[in-house]
Specification:
Helix content is about 15%, strand content about 35%. The chain has about 375 residues and is of the alpha/beta class.
């Protein structure tokens, strides 16, 4: 930043500078009072040895002490990370950032309209305000860890925490579970040593058939509802390759398949919702992990997949998968959420832990 000496300024220059300073102070105070910004404020010059008073940092490049007037860890997860954000009436933008005691200064200036090369700076200075979107209601389908129309098959030592349902196909279509009919319920469900829950088929005793019909209908409705959400916040992100990306809450839409090879992060508060509309397949590469940060919950991540979902060997996955076709768990893969498929689900030594919501209005306990 170029600082002009007052002694060399003309009267007009001094007047213009005074106007700018007054405008900056006005806007800065206004933003503070609104409480909608977190940032750095210049408080004094650095000492000769580079020292500053408590809770402030020396920006050695400008020889000023700066202090985070919004709180050192009130906006970002990483303590000590704060920023100053300012935009004046002429659309000049200034960004300052610092990390702990190591200054990392970012400054950028631009005029309206915004050139593409400063878009990143602006985005850093003015992160979008989080407005949660509504979750997809699963209704009766939220009872199940796995729900299918054409059955579930497993090989290896699978572990399912939650209920499994299949309809309109019979319970015998679920293979590899060594099921036993539960006599205490009058034959309303079966059990398996691989399932910490109950297994339901369309030919079980009343009231199971009608319950399953309602649950499958709710699954289909949830899929249609998720697919019908409009106004996506992000379209064709990464061309379908979202490897290594951090997804903020919102509605995502792809006209292709989607895949990752090693990692994907969902970062948002507890009430944050993600809806991912995928026109093709979802493919999760061997050993890949989905990571939740900032309070994000698996039961608020909705994958609406028109094709097949395949979880690669040893993958760790999160979310409610609403699939028009099949869901395939390869060896050692896992899911926290729910697998709701309109065809079949296949498991190979997989681990599924139900984390979904049976919404108010269901006629039975989840």
């Amino acid at each position: 930043m170029l600082l002009l000496s007052v002694a060399t300024m003309s009267d007009g220059q001094q007047h213009h500078q005074q106007q700018q300073q007054q405008q900056q102070q006005f806007l800065l105070q206004e933003n503070k009072q609104r409480g909608n910004l977190r940032g750095l404020e210049q408080i004094e010059n650095c000492g000769a040895d580079g020292s500053c008073s408590d809770e402030s940092f020396c920006d050695s490049s400008n020889n000023i002490c700066v202090q985070c007037w919004g709180g050192r860890d009130t906006y970002y997860d990483n303590p000590g990370y704060c920023e100053r954000k300012f935009i004046d009436v002429d659309c000049h933008i200034e960004c300052w950032r610092t990390q702990d005691t190591v200054p990392k200064i970012l400054q950028c200036y631009t005029d309206c309209p915004v050139p593409p090369q400063v878009a990143e700076c602006i985005a850093g200075c003015f992160p979008p305000t989080f407005v949660p979107i509504e979750p997809v209601l699963l209704l009766a389908a939220g009872k199940f860890a796995i729900l299918t129309k054409t059955g579930v098959t497993t090989t290896g030592v699978t572990s399912v925490t939650g209920d499994i349902g299949s309809s309109p196909i019979a319970i015998s279509s679920n293979t590899g579970f060594s099921m036993a009919l539960d006599s205490g319920s009058g034959g309303a469900f079966s059990t398996s040593n691989l399932v910490d829950g109950e297994m339901y088929g369309a030919d079980h005793a009343v009231p199971t058939p009608s319950m399953l019909t309602g649950a499958v209908g709710a699954m289909e409705l949830a899929y249609t509802t998720a697919a019908g959400r409009v106004g996506p916040d992000f379209t064709e992100l990464g061309g379908g390759n979202i490897e290594g990306k951090t997804l903020e809450p919102g509605l995502y839409k792809w006209g292709t398949g989607v895949g990752i090879t090693s990692s994907l992060v969902f970062n948002g508060p507890e009430d944050a919702v993600w809806i991912l509309q995928v026109a093709g397949d979802v493919t999760i590469g061997t050993g890949a992990q989905m990571i939740l940060q900032g309070g994000a919950k698996a039961n608020n991540i909705f994958w609406q997949v028109a094709g097949q979902t395949t979880f690669g060997t040893g993958t760790e996955n999160k979310g409610i998968f609403l699939c028009k076709t099949a869901i395939v768990f390869t060896t050692g893969s896992s899911l926290i959420g729910a697998a709701l498929a309109q065809t079949a689900v296949t498991l190979d030594a997989a681990t599924i832990v139900k984390n979904s919501v049976c919404d108010t209005g269901a006629s039975y306990s989840c």
